[in-house]
C-alpha cells in the first residue's frame, strides 16, 4: 500500500491531455472533454467529483441520437463558466428528409457552485424549414473514491443502487461501506421522456427557421448526513449570483496592472484561478491545493500560497493560520504521523478515508508544515501588526515551536529530520515527497531519518520570526532563546550542508549524516528563508542559473548532471513554478535583482505558451527550444494554488514592498524593472488602516499615493 500511495503522482497513464476542460468550485470539480461531455474515450479520470468521490462518471449530449460536432469551447475568465459551441452533423429524419450539417447551433454553458453542477443548452436553427429535434442527455455514476481513480485497487465496495427516475428527475445513489449514502440528483424544470431504469432524459423541440429554444438542468451532489442548503437548484436562479460572489472574494486582493498586456493577463488569470480554489471554512478562506488530485486542504500548500500572497492579501494568511491552528495535533498518533503541536499535512473526505484504507482523514506526515506555520505567523505580524490575531494564535505557535525541538529533531543534532511512522504514510515528507526524490550522488536512495536542506531554512526563519512574536507577547527570555537558537542553526547548517566543490548546499543529510551531494532547487529556497550567509548568496545563485539547473523555463528540481535526473519525472528534473518564484524572491531579498528577473522572466515566458496563461503544478524540465513552449507534465494539477500564486510572488520580487503597519506607511524598494515592463500599478494595497495606490515607472521610479 505504501508504494501505491507514494507513487500516485507518477501513474504511468495519460489521465489528462490538452483536450481537457476543468471546472472547479471548492469541494467540487469537473473534468470534461471540449464538447462538455464525460465519455469513456475521454480518459479514466474524467468525471464530476465532490468531496473526493466521483459522482458523475459519464455525461453525453446527443441530437437525434447523434453526437454534435464541436466548433470550439473555452472557460470564461470572469466567472469560470465553460462555454461550448456545437453544431449538428447531417441528420436523417424519420420522414426521409435531412437536416444538413451546420444548420443548428448548439451552445452549452456549464458551471459549478456549492455542491451543484449547472448546465444550460441553447438551440438555434438557421435552416429554411422547421427542424424536429430530439435532444437527449445520458448520465452515469460509479461513485468511485478519488484514490480508486488514481489507481489504488480495493477488495470490496459498497452497493450502487438502480437509478430512481420520474418525469422531472433522475436519482443515482451509492450506499458506501462507510455507512454513508451518496446521491446525485439530476433535476429538470420541465417534464421529459425517459426509459425505465436508464438514466437518460429526452426532449422534443420543433425549431422554427431563425428561432431558438433552450433547456437547463442541475445535478446536486449530497451525502446523506448533509442537510439541504438554500442554494438555488436551477440554472436561472444560480447564474446571476456568479459575478457578485466573484467580486466579493476578489476584494481580498488589490488590483495589479502593468504596461505589458500579456503580463497583466497572466496576473489576472492567476488571481481568478486562486479565487476559484478558495474554500469557505469556519475559520475563513482556505486555498485548496489543486485540481484534480489535491482539491482539498494541504498544510504546506496553503501556507506557501499564503506566504506568496501575503504582501497583497494578508487576510488570506490570517484565515490560513486559524484553519491550521484549529487542526493542530494535540496527541501522538503514529497511524496519522501526528505528534503534539504538529501542523496538518492533508485532510480528505471520501469512503476510503473513512474506512482507513488510506491514512489521510487528518494526516500529519509533513516535516515542513510546522515551521512554515510559525514562519507565516511571524511574517503576518510584520505585515499587519495584528496583535489580537497573534495573541489568539500564540498557544499554537508555542506548541509548534515545542514540536520542532522535541519531536522534529529526532537525534538531537539541531536539524529537523523525518522518518514516517504511519504504515501507509509518505516515505518522504518534505515538499518533494515522491519515494525516489532524495538520493546520493550515485543515485542510491537515501536512508532515513532525513534532514532536508530547505527545511532547516524554514526552521531558521520560523525561529527568527517567533523571536519577534515572543517579544510582542511579553516573553523576552523566550525571544532571546529563539534568536540564539536561530543564530546557532545558521552557523551549523552552513558548516554541514555547504559543499565547496558544488558551490551549492547539498540536498540532504541521511540518518548517518552522510551527505546527498546533489544540486537541487531546494538549495535555492534557502535564499528565501535568509539562512544563507551574505557572501554565499551570489555563488549559490550563479550555480542555480547554470545550464544544468536553469532550463530557460525555470529551475529544474535537480541538476541534469545528477544520477536520477529525468526531465519527465515528478520531482527529479521537472520544473515547479512555485519553487521558482520562491527562489526568485530569495534572490531579490539578497539584492540579486538581475538573477531574480531571469527567473521571473522564465515563468512569464512559459505562461505565454500555456492554455489560459495558467501555470500548472509543474512541467517537464527539458531545455528551452526556440519557438516552442515548455513540455507539459501529463497529470499535473491545473489550476494549482501555489503555482498560480507564483504570479503574486514575482510582483513582490520586483517591487520589494516594505510595510510599517504601525505607522500605516509603505515603501517600494525595486531596483528597476524587467526589460518587457515599463510600469507596474497596484491599486488598493492595504497597510494598517490605510490603502495606497502604487505606480512604479522604469524611467522615474515609485509613486505612492494614499487613497
From TrEMBL:
Tell me one GO biological process term.
carbohydrate metabolic process
Pfam families in UniProt? GDE_N_bis (PF14742), MGH1-like_GH (PF22422)
The Putative glycogen debranching enzyme N-terminal domain covers which part of the protein?
A: 23-217
Could you name the domain of life of the organism this protein comes from?
Bacteria
Q: Which residues form the Mannosylglycerate hydrolase MGH1-like glycoside hydrolase domain?
A: 305-604
Q: What is this protein called?
A: Amylo-alpha-1,6-glucosidase
Q: Which organism is it from?
A: Dyadobacter sp. 676
Amino acid at each position: 500500500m505504501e508504494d501505491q500511495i507514494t507513487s500516485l503522482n507518477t501513474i504511468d497513464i495519460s489521465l489528462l491531455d490538452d483536450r481537457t476542460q476543468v471546472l472547479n468550485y471548492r469541494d467540487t470539480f469537473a473534468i470534461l472533454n471540449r464538447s462538455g461531455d464525460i465519455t469513456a474515450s475521454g480518459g479514466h479520470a474524467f468525471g464530476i467529483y465532490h468531496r473526493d468521490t466521483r459522482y458523475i462518471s459519464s455525461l453525453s449530449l446527443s441530437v437525434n441520437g447523434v453526437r454534435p460536432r464541436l466548433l470550439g469551447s473555452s472557460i470564461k475568465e470572469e466567472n469560470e463558466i465553460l462555454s461550448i459551441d456545437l453544431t449538428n452533423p447531417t441528420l436523417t429524419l424519420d420522414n426521409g428528409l435531412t437536416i444538413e450539417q451546420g444548420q443548428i447551433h448548439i451552445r452549452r454553458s456549464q458551471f459549478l457552485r456549492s455542491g451543484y453542477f449547472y448546465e444550460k443548452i441553447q438551440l438555434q436553427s438557421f435552416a429554411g424549414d422547421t427542424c424536429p429535434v430530439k435532444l437527449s442527455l445520458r448520465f452515469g455514476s460509479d461513485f468511485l473514491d478519488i484514490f480508486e481513480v488514481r489507481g489504488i485497487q480495493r477488495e470490496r465496495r459498497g452497493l450502487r443502487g438502480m437509478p430512481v427516475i420520474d418525469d422531472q428527475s433522475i436519482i443515482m445513489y451509492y450506499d458506501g461501506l462507510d455507512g454513508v449514502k451518496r446521491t446525485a440528483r439530476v433535476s429538470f424544470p420541465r417534464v421529459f421522456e425517459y426509459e425505465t431504469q436508464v438514466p437518460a432524459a429526452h426532449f422534443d423541440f420543433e425549431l422554427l427557421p431563425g428561432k431558438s429554444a433552450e433547456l437547463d438542468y442541475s445535478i446536486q451532489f449530497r451525502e446523506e448526513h448533509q442537510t439541504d442548503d438554500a442554494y438555488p437548484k436551477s440554472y436561472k436562479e444560480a447564474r446571476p449570483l456568479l459575478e457578485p460572489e466573484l467580486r466579493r472574494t476578489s476584494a481580498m486582493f488589490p488590483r495589479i496592472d502593468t504596461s505589458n498586456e500579456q503580463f497583466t493577463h497572466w496576473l489576472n488569470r492567476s488571481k481568478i484561478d486562486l479565487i476559484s480554489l478558495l474554500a469557505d471554512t469556519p475559520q475563513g478562506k482556505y486555498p485548496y491545493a489543486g485540481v484534480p488530485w489535491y482539491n482539498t486542504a494541504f498544510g504546506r500548500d496553503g501556507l506557501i500560497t499564503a506566504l506568496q500572497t501575503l504582501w497583497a492579501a494578508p487576510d488570506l494568511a490570517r484565515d490560513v493560520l486559524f484553519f491550521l491552528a484549529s487542526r493542530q495535533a494535540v496527541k501522538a498518533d503514529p497511524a496519522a504521523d501526528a505528534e503534539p503541536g504538529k501542523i496538518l499535512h492533508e485532510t480528505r473526505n471520501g469512503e476510503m478515508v473513512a474506512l482507513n484504507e488510506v491514512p489521510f482523514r487528518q494526516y500529519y506526515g509533513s516535516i515542513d508544515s510546522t515551521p512554515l506555520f510559525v514562519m507565516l505567523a511571524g511574517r503576518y505580524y510584520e505585515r499587519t501588526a495584528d496583535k489580537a490575531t497573534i495573541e489568539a494564535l500564540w498557544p499554537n505557535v508555542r506548541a509548534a515551536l515545542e514540536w520542532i525541538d522535541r519531536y522534529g529533531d529526532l537525534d538531537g543534532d539541531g536539524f529537523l529530520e523525518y522518518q514516517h511512522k504511519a504504515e501507509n504514510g509518505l516515505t518522504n515528507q518534505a515538499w518533494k515527497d515522491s519515494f525516489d526524490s532524495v538520493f546520493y550522488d550515485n543515485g542510491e536512495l537515501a536512508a532515513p531519518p532525513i534532514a532536508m536542506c530547505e527545511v532547516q531554512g524554514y526552521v531558521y526563519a520560523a525561529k527568527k520570526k517567533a523571536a519577534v512574536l515572543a517579544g510582542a507577547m511579553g516573553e523576552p527570555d523566550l525571544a532571546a532563546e529563539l534568536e540564539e537558537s536561530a543564530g546557532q542553526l545558521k552557523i551549523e547548517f552552513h558548516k554541514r550542508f555547504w559543499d565547496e566543490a558544488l558551490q551549492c548546499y547539498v540536498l540532504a543529510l541521511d540518518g548517518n549524516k552522510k551527505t546527498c551531494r546533489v544540486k537541487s532547487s531546494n538549495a535555492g529556497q534557502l535564499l528565501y528563508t535568509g539562512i544563507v550567509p551574505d557572501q554565499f548568496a551570489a555563488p549559490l545563485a550563479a550555480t542555480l542559473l547554470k545550464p544544468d539547473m536553469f532550463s530557460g523555463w525555470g529551475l529544474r528540481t535537480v541538476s541534469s548532471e545528477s544520477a536520477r535526473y529525468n526531465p519527465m519525472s515528478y520531482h527529479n528534473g521537472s520544473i515547479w513554478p512555485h519553487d521558482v518564484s520562491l527562489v526568485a524572491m530569495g534572490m531579490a531579498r539578497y539584492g540579486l535583482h538581475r538573477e531574480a528577473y531571469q527567473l521571473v522572466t522564465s515563468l512569464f515566458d512559459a505562461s505565454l505558451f500555456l492554455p489560459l496563461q495558467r501555470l500548472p503544478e509543474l512541467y517537464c524540465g527539458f531545455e528551452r527550444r526556440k519557438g516552442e513552449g515548455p513540455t507539459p507534465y501529463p497529470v499535473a494539477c491545473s489550476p494549482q494554488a501555489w503555482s498560480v500564486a507564483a504570479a503574486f510572488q514575482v510582483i513582490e520580487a520586483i517591487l520589494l514592498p516594505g510595510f510599517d503597519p504601525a505607522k500605516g506607511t509603505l515603501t517600494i524598494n525595486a531596483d528597476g524593472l524587467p526589460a518587457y515592463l515599463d510600469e507596474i500599478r497596484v491599486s488598493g494595497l492595504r497597510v494598517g488602516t490605510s490603502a495606497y495606490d502604487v505606480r512604479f515607472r522604469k524611467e522615474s521610479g515609485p509613486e505612492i499615493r494614499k487613497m
